[in-house]
Amino acid sequence: MADPTLIHGPYVERHAESRIRAAQDDTRIVAIIGPRQSGKTTLARRLANDDRPFVTLDDEQFRRFAEDDPVGFMRSRHTAVIDEIQRAPGLILALKRAVDENPQPGRYLITGSVDLFRSSISPDSLAGRVETVELLPFSQAEIANAGIPGFLDRAFAGDFPNLEEKGPTVDLIERVLAGGFPEALSRTDPARRRTWLRAYARALSERDVSEIAAIHRLDEMARLIEHAAVSTGLLLNMSDLGSRLGVDSKTINRWLTLLEHMFLVRRVRAWHSNELKRLVKAPKLHFLDSGLLAALRRVDAATIARDRREADPLLECFVHGEIVKAAALSDDAMTVNHYRDKDQVEVDLVLERPPGKIVGIEVKAGATVRPDDFKGLARLKQVTGNRFACGIVLHDGERVQQTASKLFAMPVKMLWEA
Q1: Which of 144, 248, 279, 359 could be disulfide-bonded to 351 (CB atoms 3.0-4.6 Å)?
Q2: Buried b (16+ CB within 10 A) or exposed e, 134-152
Q3: What share of the chain is helix, strand, coil (3-state, %, to 5)?
């Protein structure tokens, strides 16, 4: 793992930067969206210049100007980098008007800590005028200052060797517990890192939620985040969550949607097919950062040393996060689902790309892979037929090995080294 002290040292190259620069050449507005503290502001400042000055709406003076007179605010800025635009939602309409009057590409780069174009904060659509680029916490390849991994392309091509020694990932648990938030990684003491991460979750529930929605029971939102951490990787039961918090399932659904818009969690839908009637339809819930999940679950290295099973949900979260980060860089649309049927046969993650190609991924925290670990992947292969590209068991072992046609076992580090 890269030395965490580098996070506050030389700039860590973000894989999304080249995509953003390309979008600025032909698109009027480019939006960088992602969770708070994921590095959006640092990247936006890097992309600002004399012709495209940087303005942050975390600054009270700028925010008041933008809120009180959005048209005037935009009129004085022919081009700009506008940081945290969700803090003045009235700017969206003024932004639309400005680029409609002058459709020159690359005029505005905006950042937002909520998914601006799926939440209620955006009063009007910028469809056709904006390209959105997701910037999540550091990926493992970014931490290592490596290039964009080829894992997804290789998986959909089934392009893995029959047998290849890769060596152990000696610091896998450390990577999982650290997560990818730059500010957290700058803390070399794991206890201090966990303190920051818990404070981060608390700030989201107490401040950010109230900024984007009329939520009056912020203490309940904080409790929901805690309960969600316990339920990660499991089938989501909103009625059960609601009963624990004293609200109905519709309220839970609305609150989870807010947490999704803030990039804290993501619902992983059940993979389905019209031909298959015996599939479980309930989604699973995943956090987007394994370090944050570990902090909320009060799990550290000593906890895992006592009981290795504590690593299972964290490693699945870690793998999900790495895949989501890689998918955000791809030109090929990809969905991430899970599979479970009425026989309780399941696959942790099911990836699907047009024209319907399927990759199944099982996550195992141990170093030994057994035939039973392929049970779900074999079922998925059976039900998807020619659409099945390959099935992979990711584990804490040392070699890539093909165990059957289109079925592989390989170390987790293939996610960023492949």
Answers
A1: 359
A2: bbbbbbbbbbeeeebbebb
A3: 45, 20, 35
